[in-house]
Amino acid sequence: MKIAVFASGTGSNAEALMQAASQKQLGGEVALLVSDKPGAGALDKAERFGVPSIALAPKNFATKADYEAKVVSHLQEHGVEFVCLAGYMRLIGSTLLNAYEGRIVNIHPSLLPAFPGLDAVGQALEAGVSETGVTIHYVDAGMDTGPIIAQEKVLIEANDTREDVFRKIQEIEHNLYPQTVKQIMETKVVGGDGQNE
Ligand code: GRF
User: What is the pTM of this model?
Assistant: First the structure.
């Protein structure tokens, strides 16, 4: 299956997905990297893996629907059937959701439904919890609200700094995301409803 990875930032998760695909460990091919931030580190990483990329700044479009329609046309041009959000800092709108219904997943650095939205690690530290984690979920119109596919816990120890927690979370993310995508590809459970295709 052809997969697109969406990233706004450094793209370490995008890199983990491309790395797994290059070793035939993703159950699919990363056919396109999409960024909403021209200059994002993820774009360089795509180039290193020989993965085509596009960077479109939403501010250059009149509406979110126009922006997403352009993204969808690129996805279709590359034969993309499945989308992995990897640090894509934007809510998915109805244009993209309708085109890829049940075929968009996201990775979030908390045990959802706890700490959705921005700075999930900061939120966990602020709340003083002793564990947080990583969640992979299907994407719906809400902020980090779709059906959960996989979760893994991370312990927050007494002396952990913010950087310590980030490091532990990223270590887990870089394994859990490729593994989970591979499972989805193998079972072809793409609807988020547990039904095989
Ligand atoms: C990850 O922590 C992911 O869970 C969140 O955004 C971060 C992206 O990091 N959605 P990177 O750009 O993949 O390094």
Answer: 0.94
